[in-house]
What we know:
The structure holds two protein chains of two kinds.
Chain A: E1 5-9, E2 12-16, E3 22-33, E4 36-47, E5 51-55, H1 62-70, E6 77-82, E7 85-86, E8 97-100, H2 112-122, H3 127-140, H4 156-168, E9 174-178, H5 186-203, E10 206-211, H6 214-220, E11 223-228, E12 231-236, H7 238-243, H8 248-253, E13 258-265, E14 268-271, E15 274-277, E16 283-289, E17 295-297, E18 308-319, E19 324-330, E20 335-340, E21 348-353, E22 359-361
Parallel strand pairs in A: 5-10, 5-11, 8-9, 9-10
Antiparallel strand pairs in A: 1-2, 3-4, 3-6, 6-7, 11-12, 13-14, 13-16, 14-15, 16-22, 17-21, 18-19, 18-21, 19-20
Helix pairs in contact in A: 2-3, 2-4, 3-4
Chain B: H1 4-32, E1 36-37, E2 43-44, H2 50-57, H3 59-93, H4 98-106, H5 113-124, H6 129-136, H7 151-176, H8 179-187, H9 192-220, H10 224-230, H11 237-245, H12 251-278
Antiparallel strand pairs in B: 1-2
Amino acid sequence: MGSTIVSISGSRIESSAPGTTPLLTIRHVAKQFGKNVVLRDISLDVAEGEFLTILGESGSGKTTLLRIVAGFESADSGELSMMGERLDRLPPYKRKVNTVFQSYALFPHMTVEQNVGYGLRVARVPSAEVDSRIEQALARVRMTAHAKAKPGKISGGQQQRVALARALVNRPKLLLLDEPLSALDANLRRQMQVELKSLQREVGISFVFVTHDQEEAMVMSDRIALLRTGELEQVATPREIYSRPATAYTAQFIGHTNLLRAEVRGGRAHCESLSWGVGLPDGQAAFSVRPEDVRVVGPGRPAVDGVVRFRGKVQHRAFHGATELVRVVAGDGLVFSVRTTGMDGREEVECEFSPADAVPVRDSAERS
Amino acid sequence: MFSRAYRIAITVPPLAWVTIFLLVPYLLMFCFSFWSVSSAQTIVHSWTLDNYKQLFTKDVYWETLLRSMWIAARVMVFSLALGYPLAYFLSFYAGKRKDLLYQMVIIPLWVSYLVRAYAWKTILGSDGVLNTLLQYVHLTRHPLDFLLYSPFAVVLTLTHIYTPFAFLPIYAALEHIPRNLVEASNDLGASPAQTFWRVIFPLSIPGVVAGATFAFVLSLGDFLAPLLLGGPSGIMISNIVVTLFGAAYNWPLGAAISLCMLVLVVSLLFLSERLEKKWNFS
């Protein structure tokens, strides 16, 4: 997938993957529950065959947005359309969209097989075809052996796969997944992330996946739409959203970062005792420096021109296996997280980062 | 965990209660049903099957028992027919008014049974509210006499009284259905009617079975409604039992009928529990 254009105008973000026709178009959708504004002015496109993740903290409105697409909630304003047709005026049962629910929502009085065949049966698909499609769908999620079991008799991971089969068997244009992995334990979860992603490639259906887990979003998505208190913060590929976060919030939410609030004067940013050259107008600015872009320098090595260098005390070290996250307090009180691949037991270190790795970010104002 | 004295203190009173007020009376009833009454109106304490023989050979007992079951069956059907839609509406569509409407269904239960039965008497009598109204609007010239003192009156009154009993378990069962199952059904393309018949109704069956059992069993044993509103054609089996234990002074025959009723009701309860279990998936 090519790069993504994100146009930022005020606080509104409209985004689509260029070169592909959008399957689903969300335009200016807003939703309020009583006095509580849940979504404001959301515009977003989902391309055909795309894996799009709506990422956000709890209360960000991500599930509501998904429910609006599915038709369980109606938007107060705005439009939804799918392949050029208005979607928001259709009841849920007439939308060519299927959902995998957070708690799976399998019908407890039906067998696995009957659950999977439900959508086909209510659509009055001929029974021979129903049988073969159920068989295929169950084989795809490796649940053939449990076809005759009731949902209450199978494990959470298995229920999850049945829920997936039940949705996919209808060959929807778009599959919505509402935190489907959140009930699984960590190992199974990682395994399902990989499976789900390869399944999506295989069937070629667009997935809109809701999660609060940024790692999950990074692993699976073609694009991530980061939602913050009802507004889109940034929509971009995982790589771009990580390396070029548009806002301080994005930088902090996706992975670790060091957020530096600096003052720009005459083409140089000044933050405490540090300074580096920037191409920004004078005024306040915020910069994100990823911990892995800060290097610990061996003693006595001369500084390269332009590189920002500082000395600090090691305050805390967290071992992560391949890397170590070290907290360094510089002389002027600035605290840096530094990711290293192994470091001696020094108490005092010298660190540096290159100005190119200090990504200017919009300092997102607090929103309620 | 608890001391021996404490365990005795909490188990003995209820056990004693059940023994004195339930087991002993049933045992007595069992014995009575095999005794007989002499011509001098005294109980003869020698074992005989005469009472059961009478019960199965004399038409009046058979017919009354069948009529009682027929009345109870109709009450059951009408209570479900009224209670189910009410419960469904309340559970799924009442929104904010749910609690208020629920109370409105429950409050009549606090009104004395007798008052409600008498109310129907006032409504259905030949000078009653209904007949007066029908004549006033010239729909009929003379009072309709099948309204009161008939099986119709009994079925109507019992339906009124036992509909909340059918409603409650159905409502509870419907409230138990996770709403995301309804959403899942819609999501998979099922229309509201398909969703009702394929998901909501099957999952509410335990409540329907419980409600049906309540309505049937409670009306089968009822004797006040037939006494007040049934007339000669609306007599039910409990009225016969009352007479046998009272004016007729034939306790043995009364006990035999009661015992048969007990067996019938216990089998029904057993059956209904089996059905409820079979359809319970939570």
